[in-house]
């Protein structure tokens, strides 16, 4: 073969190799994946799982884009307490009040739980009981980011659903309050191996969604937090006239429904809603990271994806651990009727194959 033809063949082969590398799921992922999770987990058992979820969420968000924020927060609250095992979805039982009953979870959206169970029903109808509720929550959070204008990215799958929910104390201990300052938040998240860049990036989840007055009125009454912009504080006082007001307001005043980097611009203008947000700009270890994300949205997206993939793998159950719930709100052993119906259905399906 002539040298020109040889080098052309070499170029062609190497570019094909590159293309296949970058097209493969997770190929560009900079985060190591946990044993038992995989980029191709449902490729044979439920290849349509992710497309069913995305298609349905597009419909849901067309009616109400606010639900995207509810689903993103649900994944965060699932993963931080006892790992991403769907335990936040479990209803309370004789063993005690559920994670849902713990104070930080009282403001999770009722509708988010309904959406997850609906997605579970659609996916199980297609494939049988093979996809876990914990994976559905993780996929729904990823899609919420993308469908609100944020980055699209692959997440490793194969999480199993937990058999128990965490205690109220464990829930409180693992979800820092909005009154915490940046150094407390950094210390708390360092126990889960998040560094300062991860913390600032994850807090960018507050670029969408709502908060109740009670989460921030401590910054308005009895004395106004001096780090808060005066006009912003006045607007908030209009929405929440007393410390016990029950109203709600947006987390990102610039673009409340769009997943972008404007949350960091808010912080630079002293318009962060919570102490835990605003202090990221006051604190010397995080201030420059906030500025860099405010100046460069693609840098924020890149670091957000890294931190989300890390978060989505916290203490996951895999392999034979846990179970695949037939109803996301109830563990299978408390739900024998539903499980046996689904199992019969699965048997019929495999007989038909
Ligand atoms: C770092 C510590 C964090 C604190 C202290 C915190 C605190 C809060 C609080 C108090 C609310 C409002 C609750 C209410 O009053 O209704 C909220 C909402 C929200 N949080 Fe966080 N959060 C943190 C991290 C995160 C992370 C890591 C994410 C996701 C990546 C996230 C996503 C959201 C979203 C999307 C909402 C709006 C929910 C809705 O509209 O229903 N938060 N957060």
Automatic annotation (TrEMBL):
Top-level taxonomy: Eukaryota, Viridiplantae, Streptophyta, Embryophyta, Tracheophyta
Disulfide bridge map: 46-127, 79-84, 133-328, 213-240
Known catalytic reactions: 2 a phenolic donor + H2O2 = 2 a phenolic radical donor + 2 H2O
Domain spans labelled Plant heme peroxidase family profile: 36-332
Binding site for Ca(2+) 1: 78, 81, 83, 85, 87, 99
Family under the similarity heading: Belongs to the peroxidase family. Classical plant (class III) peroxidase subfamily. Belongs to the peroxidase family. Ascorbate peroxidase subfamily.
Organism (species): Dovyalis caffra
Molecular function terms from GO: heme binding; lactoperoxidase activity; metal ion binding
Gene Ontology CC, one term: extracellular region
Site (Transition state stabilizer): 73
Residues making up the signal peptide according to the UniProt record: 1-23
Compartment list: Secreted
Name of the featured protein: Peroxidase
The keyword Nucleotide-binding appears for this protein: no
Residue positions binding substrate: 176
């Amino acid at each position: 073969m002539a040298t020109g033809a040889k080098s052309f063949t070499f170029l062609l082969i190497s570019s094909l190799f590159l293309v296949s590398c970058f097209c493969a799921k997770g190929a560009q992922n900079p985060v190591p994946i946990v044993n038992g999770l995989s980029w191709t987990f449902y490729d044979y058992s439920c290849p349509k799982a992710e497309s069913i979820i995305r298609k349905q969420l597009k419909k849901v968000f067309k009616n109400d884009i606010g639900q995207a924020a509810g689903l993103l927060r649900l994944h965060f609250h699932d993963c931080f307490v006892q790992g991403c095992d769907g335990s936040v979805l479990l209803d309370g039982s004789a063993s005690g009040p559920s994670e849902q009953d713990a104070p930080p979870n009282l403001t999770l959206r009722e509708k988010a739980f309904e959406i997850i169970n609906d997605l579970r029903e659609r996916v199980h109808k297609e494939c049988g009981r093979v996809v876990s509720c914990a994976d559905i929550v993780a996929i729904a959070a990823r899609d919420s980011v993308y469908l609100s204008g944020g980055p699209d990215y692959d997440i490793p799958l194969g999480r199993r659903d937990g058999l128990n929910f965490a205690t109220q104390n464990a829930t409180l201990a693992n979800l820092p309050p909005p009154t915490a300052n940046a150094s407390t938040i950094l210390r708390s998240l360092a126990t889960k191996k998040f560094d300062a860049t991860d913390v600032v990036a994850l807090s960018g989840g507050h670029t969408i969604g709502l908060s109740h007055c009670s989460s921030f009125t401590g910054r308005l009454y009895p004395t106004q937090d001096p780090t808060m912009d005066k006009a912003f504080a006045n607007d908030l006082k209009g929405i929440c006239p007393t410390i016990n007001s029950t109203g709600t307001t947006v987390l990102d005043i610039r673009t409340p429904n769009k997943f972008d980097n404007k949350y960091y611009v808010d912080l630079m203008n002293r318009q962060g809603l919570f102490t835990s947000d605003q202090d990221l700009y006051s604190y010397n270890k995080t201030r420059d990271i906030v500025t860099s994300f405010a100046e460069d949205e693609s840098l924020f997206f890149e670091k957000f994806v890294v931190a989300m993939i890390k978060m989505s793998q916290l203490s996951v159950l895999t392999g034979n651990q846990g179970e695949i719930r037939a109803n996301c709100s109830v563990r299978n052993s408390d739900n024998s009727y539903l499980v046996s119906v689904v199992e019969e259905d699965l048997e019929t399906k495999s007989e038909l194959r």
